[in-house]
Amino acid sequence: MGTLIAVEGVDGAGKFTLSSRLVRAWERAGIDAVRVGFPRYGESIHADLAAEALAGEHGDLADGVNAMAVLFALDRAGAAADLRRMLHRHDVVLLDRYVASNAAYSAARRHEDAAGPTVEWVRSLEFDRLVLPVPDVQLYLQVPVSVAEERARGREQADESRARDVYERDGGLQERTAAVYAGLAARSWVSPWVVVESGAADEIEADSDRLAAQLVDRTAESDGMTR
């Protein structure tokens, strides 16, 4: 059985870059790793509806915190069987965003913290009701929101297809989301967390082998993997 690792952080934190480098580090170490990104835009009707709502379509759908959270949760639920198959076939399954993303953004929209009722509602919905696989380790990429926003703007300017949505343009929401993420990590919400501090994502290439080993070794005793 493979190790399930989720990479979390605000929009523009550098999750894709970090995820890609971690996968390459595992491959160098002879570990069979695969990356899955959420939301699955272009693959899941629920993810596409959520994206359209955040772009201003579907009336007031985006105004509903629970409605948006359910769409993102159903996107993951549609991939649950595939994730379980991947865990049987690969040493590591790395997720670029997972359930903690739904918890952090939903709580932040309600101005709640990591101990609030929305975080618990998301946990119950996704892990209890939808029976999604629980991550063995969660990695929080902690980057100043101002840096993340600048990256998101640069990405938008370089590629018209990557225009920022209503969440990404809301600096206050991003700040609150970062605070909820920090709280989730401090509480070891659902599973152990590893925090990668500000700036590390840009320098991780040289140190990616150490971080990759650290993440997998957190679950070595329980999953029986040999390294």
From TrEMBL:
The residues forming a coiled coil are: none
Tell me the superkingdom of the source. Bacteria
What EC number(s) has UniProt assigned to this enzyme? 2.7.4.9
Respond yes or no to whether keyword Protein transport is given for this record. Answer: no
Q: Which residue intervals define the domain Thymidylate kinase-like in the entry?
A: 7-163
The record's catalysed reaction(s) read: dTMP + ATP = dTDP + ADP
A Pfam family cross-referenced in the UniProt record is Thymidylate_kin
Which GO MF terms are attached to this record?
Answer: dTMP kinase activity
Could you confirm whether the keyword ATP-binding appears in this record? yes
UniProt keywords (A-Z) are: ATP-binding, Kinase, Nucleotide biosynthesis, Nucleotide-binding, Transferase
Entry's family note: Belongs to the thymidylate kinase family.
What function does this protein fulfil?
Phosphorylation of dTMP to form dTDP in both de novo and salvage pathways of dTTP synthesis.
- Tell me which NCBIfam families the record gives: PRK07933.1
Its protein name is Thymidylate kinase
Q: Which organism is it from?
A: Rhodococcoides kroppenstedtii
